[in-house]
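Why predict the complex rather than its parts? Because the way molecules touch one another can change local conformation, and only a joint prediction can capture that. The input here totals 558 residues.
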Amino acid sequence: MNDLQQQYRLEEVRKVFGRHQIALDGIDLNVQRGEKLALIGPSGAGKTTLFRLLNCTLRPTTGKLWLDDCDVESLHGKRLRAMRRQIGTIYQQHNLVQRLKVVHNVLAGQLGRWSTPRSLMSLAKPADLGLAHKALEQVGIADKIFERTDELSGGQQQRVAIARVLVQDPEVILADEPVSSVDPTLASTIVRLLIDISESTRKTLIVSLHSVDLALAYFPRVIGISHGSITFDLSPDKISEAMLEGLYAGNDREQPATEAVNEPASPIAYPSIS
Amino acid sequence: MNQPVPSLIHRSPKTLFPYLFTALFLLAFIDSWRRAGIEPMVLFAAKGRGNVWKFLSGMFPPDLSWNFLSLMFRPTLETIQISFLGTLIAVIIGFPLGLLGTHTLMVRGILNEAELQGVPVRRSLRYAIYFLARGVLSLFRSIPEFVWAFMFVRAVGLGPFPGVLAIGVAYGGMLGKVYSEIFEGVNDRPLEALQSLGANKLQIFFYGWFPQALPNFVSYTLYRWECAVRASAILGLVGAGGLGQQIEISMRMFNFNEVLTLLMILFLMVAGVDYLSARVRAML
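Output of the joint prediction:
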């Protein structure tokens, strides 16, 4: 009865931290399977919170979120983990375990499939070296496989994070500001890499970017978010300069990169982010 | 433009805190001094001085005769063994309880937000386990190892075994509490990422938590081992074997030169453990 092509359906989704911190204020969104879309908007607009809802890290305060036609509200324990396995997330600050070797960070993509004993044994002796090697080759840093992650540069670490998603092989790839900490040339390389992966494997791709140019250049659908609401949801050729100005009005557009650094790790502990 | 800012700070109730704290500190200091009967001059009074002199001069020269040293070999080894096994048991007790007593693993934070929202039964169960673990840890460490040893000597008889048990239980309580604090202090962003790709709690623990906590974990555990070497000397006084028992015997016989030798052995052991832990930490 439902459209099988539907990946995400959000209806009136609100997320409120504490009592008054409204991070998302009524989001309606439909995403088709295999679709590529970019989110843009000022810092503190609620993009990161939206990603945390999309990858089932947080739940909506009110409203409904369907993933693959499954109401996420009903998911707990094993079924919740099985759903999360279908969603790969690339974060702004890489979120790799710095003290582990690259190979373990990459193979962590398998954790949703591995049993706990198997994953433990893999820490002693990597369980699927070939898979890790192939993924790292695809992102161009196969030679770093046995290095400790904290010895890599920021751009290399972001590639490790992408390799982890390749190993995870999810249906959806979410990338929250994946290029805000690398230089502009590398930024477009990484965005292109993500788009290639999405196209070659027909994965849904949702990327938030603070570079409007990258969003307009590479994505067929661009969504503007500010103050926890969607202000436009259009193809790039229909987005006017005035719309962009309206989106960032009252915000300093040059600064969003600092948001990432200062943003608290957990909105639950520090409810003041929105 | 700067005008309103200072007035705001001035009105902030927080500014009272330093004064309040200073007043409380002074009060605590003066009252404790009086009630604890601190009289520094007594230390230097003629009678006290004589006794201290007798004790100290009796210590020199330390008894380094082969006869005595060879007799002390076994108790020394026993002390190391007591502290080693005791610390091992403490880790076995403290590690799982510390895990269950870790706030960010069990009940709050980004790793429990989705899982516990809207399921009050599961949430209360988690809180129950969490508080139980913290309670057991508090109980274990609030009873001094001396008292534990006393109880275990009654239970299993004299010798090193009650010493091992006493250190295991009392230090298990301390290790568990500190472990949970170490675990709570790690960067939770990598943990969030591991959760988001479908890992379960144990997998998140071993791939994200433990690697980050490892240096602190190892160094604190080794520090506790060092404490255990010292503690096993005290435990000897209640009959729990090791060097402590020898110190007690020598003191009772007024053989202060033997006491000094034993203290030197103790010092060497503590320094040895300290050196070992420095090497291990450098390797991590």
